[in-house]
Each structure stands twice: as C-alpha cells, then as structure tokens.
Design a protein that fits this description.
With 267 residues, the chain is α/β, with parallel strands linked by helices. It has a single domain (3-264), classed as 3-Layer(aba) Sandwich (Rossmann fold). It has helices at residues 3-20, 29-32, 40-43, 59-62, 80-89, 102-115, 152-162, 182-185, 188-192, 201-210, 226-230, 233-241, 246-253, and strands at 70-74, 94-99, 120-124, 137-143, 163-176, 214-223, 256-264. Strands 3-2-1-4-5-7-6 form a 7-stranded mixed β-sheet, with helices on both faces. Helix 7 links the parallel strand 4 (137-143) and strand 5 (163-176). Helix 1 packs parallel to helix 6. The longest helix has 18 residues, at 3-20. The protein is globular. The N and C termini lie far apart (38 Å). The relative contact order is 0.14. The chain binds S-adenosylmethionine. S-adenosylmethionine is lined by residues 7, 10, 14, 24-25, 53-55, 75-77, 80-81, 99-101, 104, 126-128, 143-145, 148-149, 194.
Length: 267
C-alpha cells in the first residue's frame, strides 16, 4: 500500500473511533485503563469525555515531567495523555497535541474546553510533518501511534528536529518480536488495530539511533495482552475471515509487544 493510502485508511478508522469512543488499538478501552497503567484516581481528574485511551501504555507516568516544560504528544487522540501531562507541567508549562484526524482534534478540543485547560492546545497535522517549530519542545510523548505511520524514520527525524538540545522522548508503542505471517501483515484491519504496521523491535530502535538520538533504551516491555488481541473487534474479524484458530492467534499475539522507549537529543 502507498503511504497516502495507508494514512487515508488510518484516518477513516480513527474518525469513527472518535465518534464512537470505541477503540482501535485495544478493545474495551475503559476497562483496559488499569491494564495499561492509568490509575482510577488520575482518571477522575480528567473531563469525562477524555477519559478513554486508545493507547497501549502510559508514557506520561514515565516521562518525569517537570513544572514549566513544553510537552508534545504525537497522535494525541482524545487528549487523555495531554491532560495528564498538563497537570504535571503546571501553568508555566505547555502541552501540544498533534493528530491528523480532524474528528479526533475536534473531540480533544471539546474535552479541553470542558476541562478548562489553559496550557493545552491541539493542532491538526501529520507526525511526519509536525506543525511545530525547531528546537522548541522539552519532552515528546506518544501512545501507540508511531506503529501506524508508514514512514517511521521521518517521524523520528521530525521528533529530533522539534526537540530542544537535551530534550527527551518517552513513547509507548507496539513492536514485533517475531515477523507476522503475510496474511496478517497485509490486512487493513490489523493495520488500524496497531498490529501489522508494527516493525521488529531492533529495527524500531535502530531508526531512533540513526536519526541522532542518544541513550536509547527500552524502559518497559510486555507482551501485548492476549485478551486485547482475542477480544478486539478488528482481530476477531481477521480471525474469522482467514480461518485463524485460537491457538494460531495466541501464537501471533506472542509476536507482538508493547514497549516504552526513552531517548535523548544530544546537547
Ligand atoms: C491508537 S490511537 C492513540 C490515541 C492516543 N495517543 C491515546 O493513547 O489514546 C492513534 C491516534 O494517532 C493518530 N494518527 C495515526 N497516524 C497518524 C499520523 N501519521 N499523524 C498524525 N496522527 C496520526 C490517529 O488519528 C489516532 O488519533
């Protein structure tokens, strides 16, 4: 598939997710919050419409955000991580969410109005062409988005460009530990479900190093929970279409991992 075609499919799917508040990268999103690391207490501080995650981790928890910092969230969805980050950086700090799906941006802006956040803004744009000036961001976070990009190198080049020297990256994402079979690799539903756009873990880390980041490390790694895969409407449909047994599905699930990666732009 061509890059533009992939973006169209991803955008269409997440436009639907924005309207339904349903999930693409995981299944029953509200129930999954605790599994991916959000606490009940912190979710209670968030506007009701924003308390849903399409992510696969909790990058804000590990980003060690400090008061006054500028944070950029790549693929901000409904804005949950931006709102959590906003509390940590305080009034003197700033949070910018970027997402290419207009329906997601509308939803995030509405949530922002409801929560009366003064230090958060959402910008429509692609993470491969960030609408952000050079050397202006302290911390980049992202939650289950870069796997969806058809040009991951470009995403990390852009991240490098907008970070200040000494700025850091803390991202949650999906990677592969074993290659997936061709029938899954080529499946659109598996792509928007954050599985078939994922690349091998070593390849992912190499791209981050090659664009200039230092101190690149995986700070957490877990197999993508099997129930996310089995109970996910996208994967259920794929299993049915391709006559994939539960046993096979479990094996494929063992090839998919959720990681949290840290890296620094040299000073
Ligand atoms: C799986 S959701 C994650 C949303 C959010 N980070 C969260 O944790 O709830 C992926 C989001 O990334 C956005 N997205 C996917 N590819 C993108 C790209 N190339 N540029 C900008 N946004 C993108 C989608 O519109 C969607 O809102």
């Amino acid at each position: 598939m061509k890059e533009e075609e992939i973006r169209k499919i991803v955008r269409k799917s997440y436009a639907k997710a924005a309207k339904r508040e349903s999930c693409c990268c995981n299944s029953e999103c509200n129930e999954n919050h605790e599994k991916i690391g959000y606490s009940k207490a912190e979710l209670e501080t968030i506007p009701e419409g924003a308390a849903f995650s399409l992510g696969c981790g909790h990058p804000v928890a590990l980003a060690s955000l400090k008061e006054g910092e500028t944070v950029l969230d790549l693929g901000s969805g409904g804005g949950l991580d931006c709102f959590l980050a906003a509390k940590k950086v305080g009034e003197k700090g700033r949070v910018i969410g970027v997402d290419m799906t207009p329906e997601m941006i509308d939803k995030a802006r509405e949530n922002c109005r409801q929560g009366r956040y003064k230090n958060v803004e959402f910008r429509l744009g692609e993470i491969e062409n960030l609408p952000v000036a050079d050397n202006t961001v302290d911390v980049i976070i992202s939650n289950c988005v870069i796997n969806l990009s058809p040009n991951k190198k470009r995403v990390f080049e852009e991240a490098f460009r907008v970070l200040k020297p000494g700025g850091r990256l803390m991202i949650s994402d999906i990677v592969l530990l074993k290659e997936l079979p061709k029938k899954i690799k080529e499946n659109e539903q598996a792509y928007v479900g954050c599985i078939s756009g994922a690349v091998m873990k070593e390849q992912y880390l190499e791209v981050i190093k090659n664009v200039g980041f230092q101190d690149v490390k995986v700070v957490e790694e877990a197999l993508f929970p099997i129930d996310f895969v089995i109970n996910n409407p996208s994967t259920e449909a794929i299993m049915k279409d391709y006559d994939i047994s539960l046993e096979e599905a479990k094996e494929y699930a063992g090839s998919v991992a959720s990681i949290k990666v840290y890296a620094v732009k040299p000073k």
